[in-house]
Write a structure and sequence with these properties.
By secondary structure, this protein is an alpha/beta fold. The protein has 15 helices and 19 strands. α6 crosses α7 and α13 crosses α15.
Length: 466
């Protein structure tokens, strides 16, 4: 029988000395628990409702952020059908931090307090961390536009296949146009315990910062300079709100703590601790960790990551003013609106081209999802060529679109799509079959529109022969 990548790595793992084995386990555990750090985005209010898109990503906007009563028809297939890593290509892991106290208080599923996309490229032996702010205004598949931190809550609350992690993964995949192989969800208490078990972390604090330790009434101050932080203070440091750059500073501090954990795991006294208590530590923390990785896969990934040099670990934060602008959602929520071109550049720099993909191009269910939305479509001729609207209408109807009207429009330079009521899968399928460029896809939220989506045909479009 042909051995899988993970089987081969596991055999290599078992051939290591005990110290080397524990180091590999430590890196795997560290990768998981660091998602427990959180940064709660500060809410700023500036009136705006415009939203943008990335290539291959759907546009959608809704007038309220409330979950629908039960799973939407287009969200039925959102199970954790993630692509297994083959060990030779780039692997992406979504790390999510949750405050489990929300569950303990019977307040229902929480929103994610942090999201970090971790990536590793075995071809170049490089890794990276990309922090995604919780107020990012994105399409949550099946639910319309919302803050990205609501995806987990909506997935859990609606009992979708894959639950909260499944919908959070689909949302991030769609937003960035990448494939996610694994996820790790970690609660605050697991993160704190792990930091304490390894003896704290050393952080070079650039500026003094006031922090709120969970369970304490008053704030504490972490002074500037090199500090050793225990679990409670490390978490508080990563979650601190009040600094010059607010929540984006918090995301950077979160990454600093992750790298500090990695550095602490290289210390001889920590290795000695892990030699004697490595598997016990994992067992103690496992109740606060939810992941789709098997223990074998965690060992394998930790074994693989052990030799990545610190200078080969990229760090990036989606932040103002380069990647987002401040705005307000239709129902008054303070949001961060993506600056499309700049996030696209950041994404392409952070990932190599082999890991970036168009969501619509690989979505075999795109036609079925489009039909489930049942959006009304208008087709207008802006190409200057007679008869194109009628022939396009016939073509789109043959594909299952609900075309309700045709007519003429002012001339346009290229075929344009306008979404008025939030129909991501309809747009996805139109992009797929018509090749509409990202710069000609617009969201103009108007609940009073006579149609859901307009297709304005440009001179670049010729309907295929029926």
């Amino acid at each position: 029988m042909k051995k899988t990548f993970f089987t081969r790595i596991s055999e290599s793992f078992r051939s290591l000395s005990r110290v080397q084995q524990v180091l590999a386990v430590a890196f795997a555990v560290a990768t998981l628990v660091t998602a427990g750090m959180a940064f709660n985005m500060v809410r700023q209010f500036i009136v705006s409702t415009t939203s943008f898109n990335l290539p291959g990503l759907a546009l959608n906007q809704t007038s309220d952020g409330e979950p629908q009563s039960g799973p939407p028809a287009v969200a039925q297939n959102l199970g954790p059908d993630l692509e297994e890593w083959d060990g030779t290509t780039r692997v992406n892991i979504l790390l999510m931090g949750l405050d489990a106290r929300d569950w303990a208080a019977n307040e229902g599923p929480p929103r994610t307090d942090s999201m970090i996309l971790f990536t590793y490229d075995p071809a170049t032996n490089t890794a990276g961390m990309l922090s995604i702010p919780r107020d990012m205004w994105v399409d949550v598949p099946g639910f319309g536009h919302n803050k990205i931190n609501a995806a987990y809550q909506l997935g859990e609350g609606s009992r979708l296949p894959g639950g909260g992690p499944g919908l959070a993964i689909k949302t991030v995949e769609q937003f960035l146009g990448i494939t996610i192989n694994y996820y790790a969800q970690v609660d605050f208490s697991a993160f704190e315990r792990f930091i304490d078990l390894i003896g704290g972390v050393k952080i070079d604090v650039p500026n003094s910062v006031d922090v709120q330790v969970i369970g304490e009434e008053y704030t504490r101050r972490i002074e500037r300079g090199r500090q050793v932080l225990n679990g409670a203070y490390a978490l508080a440091y990563a979650r601190a709100r009040h600094s010059e750059d607010g929540d984006f500073d918090r995301a950077r501090r979160q990454q600093e703590v992750i790298l500090a954990i990695r550095q602490q795991l290289m210390r001889q006294e920590v290795l000695t601790l892990l030699v004697t208590r490595g598997f016990q530590i994992y067992q103690d923390l496992s109740s606060g960790i939810n992941t789709n990785m098997t223990l074998d896969e965690m060992f394998s990934l930790g074994f693989t990551l052990r030799n990545v040099k610190p200078e080969n670990i990229k760090r990036a934060v989606i932040s103002t003013p380069d990647h987002v602008t401040l705005g307000t959602s239709p129902d008054g929520l303070s949001i961060l609106k993506p600056i499309t071109e700049n996030i696209r550049t950041l994404r392409d720099d952070f990932f190599n081209t082999s890991s970036v993909r168009s969501v619509v191009a690989i979505n075999s269910a795109s036609q079925a999802n489009m039909q489930a939305e049942a959006a009304t479509v208008a087709v207008y001729n802006g190409s200057g060529n007679s008869g194109v609207a009628d022939s396009t209408r016939a073509y789109l109807q043959a594909q299952g679109f609900n075309v309700v009207t045709t007519g003429n429009a002012n001339p346009v330079g290229a075929t344009t799509l306008i979404d008025y009521t939030g129909n991501p899968y309809t747009l996805q399928y139109l992009v797929e079959i018509m090749g509409v460029s990202p710069g000609h896809i617009f969201n103009r939220y108007d609940p009073n529109s006579q149609v859901d989506v307009e297709v304005i045909i440009g001179p670049d479009w010729t309907p295929p022969s029926q």
